[in-house]
Amino acid sequence: MSIDDSSLLLAIGFCGLSLAVTFFASWLSARHERFTLTWTFAVLLIVTNAFAYGAYVTWPSLLLGAFAFGTLVIAFLTVLLAAYQYRGTGVPRSEILVLGGIGGVSVLGSFAAGYDGLGMIVANATASFFLARTLLIYWSCREEAPIPIIGMTVLYAATSLAFALCAAVLVSEGELIRGAAPKNWAEDISLFVYAIGLTGVGALSLSLNQWRLARAHRRDALTDALTGLLNRRALFDRHDGRPVPRDTGVIVFDIDRFKRINDRHGHAVGDDVIRRFGAVLDRGRRPGDTAARVGGEEFALVLPRVTEADAGAIAERIRRSFASETILSGEGEVACSVSAGVVFVDDAGYSFDSVLSVADDALYAAKRDGRDRVVRTTIDRFANKETVNANAYRPGQLAGIPGQGQRPHEVRGL
């Protein structure tokens, strides 16, 4: 074995040890990401394989060869397991057991029978297959993080091809009994690609883990913990800062007499009421609609590309659905209802904050008129947009808002 090969094996070993420590530290900081712990074991197995193979090259024996090539198969099977865990769709235990059993028994059985050359062929072919299977799993997740995952699949493809070349060259040489480690051009290329692939894949896997954690933290920051809907910050991040498009409906909901529910039945029941309405709202929205809990017992629903009649009908359907919910407390069934204010934007140019305020005015009208109802209004295309965008209008300044002799449209029984 040349000094270059020795250096590559040492590089694989010590690089792997550093990666294993880093993966384990990542798992300690986020233990729900179990694939980082699996990667820790996989890298430790790769390190073991590198040192064992180096020893086998210097002191060839069937026992040491079986151990070196056996750990190679187990290491890449563990990498495949980590890929399944990363994808998050469940680990096919039967597939893992069958693949591991076939690969492991074939390699160890060949060495035990004295056919070390056959064992090397099987080990390289099995490693190539496991890496190709891993590549396909990560490729199926490419929409999550396209650039790093494409980079990983290229490295997996190169490493898989390198092991396949090793198996092909061993087959072409036709030596089922070798007595020593193979030495050919494919082995030289494989060691070089192996060293680069391990480093690159490890670094990109860590990058993917950090990216996923950052995305999860952002999702948590923008999600209401009680209902799973967007929170107020997320709602304004999505819709504020640009004019509301025409043919948009904005609905504001408020659970009726919620303070009385809390005072009489306790906060646990109050939380259940909020969760139930959040679920009703989520079920009642269309694909592409934005549902959010904007604070306390108040919710908002933004409806793009909707008619005025349909916006009112959606609000009424949600009101009815919530009224039919059965919510129990220690004192029996809790009667709950919700009021809603609907504003329809029939002309572009209004700020989201202003439109939301108009919907609030309609909601207050619903509360004044007896609760458990939907009141809707429109923003008149001839209204003063500068006044609206400055959010300095008085209730009733816009068409459809009570206060100047014009009563909002009340929709019941839609």
What features would you describe in this structure?
- There is one protein chain.
- By secondary structure, this protein is of the alpha+beta class.
- Helix content is 63%, strand content 11%.
- The strands form two sheets. It has a seven-stranded mixed β-sheet.
- A hairpin with a 2-residue loop joins strand 5 and strand 6 (332-334).
- The longest helix has 37 residues, at 185-221.
- The chain starts with a helix and ends with a strand.
Topology:
Elements (H helix, E strand, L loop, with lengths): L2 H27 L4 H25 L3 H26 L5 H20 L3 H24 L6 H28 L11 H37 L8 E2 H8 L8 E8 L2 H8 L1 H18 L5 E6 L2 E6 L4 H16 L3 E3 L2 E3 L3 E8 L6 H17 L5 E6 L5 H5 L19 E3 L3
Parallel strand pairs: 1-3, 7-8
Antiparallel strand pairs: 2-4, 2-7, 3-4, 5-6, 8-9
The pLDDT mean sits at 85
Number of E strands: 9
- Give the H and E element order: HHHHHHHEHEHHEEHEEEHEHE
How would you write the strand order of the largest sheet?
A: 1-3-4-2-7-8-9
Main beta sheet strand tally, sense and closure: 7 strands, mixed
| Helical amount | 55-70%
Question: From the coordinates shown, what is the CATH architecture of the largest domain?
Answer: Up-down Bundle
Number of domains: 2
CA radius of gyration is 32 Å
Individual helix count? 13
Structure class: alpha+beta
Hey, roughly how much beta strand do the residues contain? 5-15%
The first-to-last residue Cα distance is 83 Å
* Overall shape: elongated
CATH class of the largest domain: Mainly Alpha
